[in-house]
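Handout, page 2. Input:
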Amino acid sequence: MHEENTKQTIITIRPDQRTPLPGPADSPFVREEYFSDGHVWIGHVTTEPGSATPWHHHGAHETYAYILSGEARVEFGEDGSQSRHITADGSMHIIPAGLVHREINVGSEKNHFLIIRVGEGPAVVPAEMTEDS
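Output:
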């Protein structure tokens, strides 16, 4: 979190000032935080080609995802059978709070996403998807 009062100044956060978020050393995903104040989380996510996130949701956060480069598929629905194809075409994708989903890099290059989450509580919550879900 950046301590400056955002109502009294303009804050610039350069790429070298992003805060890397913890994850496994061999993870194909890199999450970096630009800003967080307990209600808004803004970050950058990079995913390697062919990689898929574990099933998860964003708790009470509504998520706004803008793909800067690459190609992805987001799977969701009670049994994971619904999907939305996402490309770097200028579209913003909104993921409702609590929606269990996963992202898959279906392209041949790294994906780069700008992510904005609005809500409270943990921003990423692991979820179990079973054949019965």
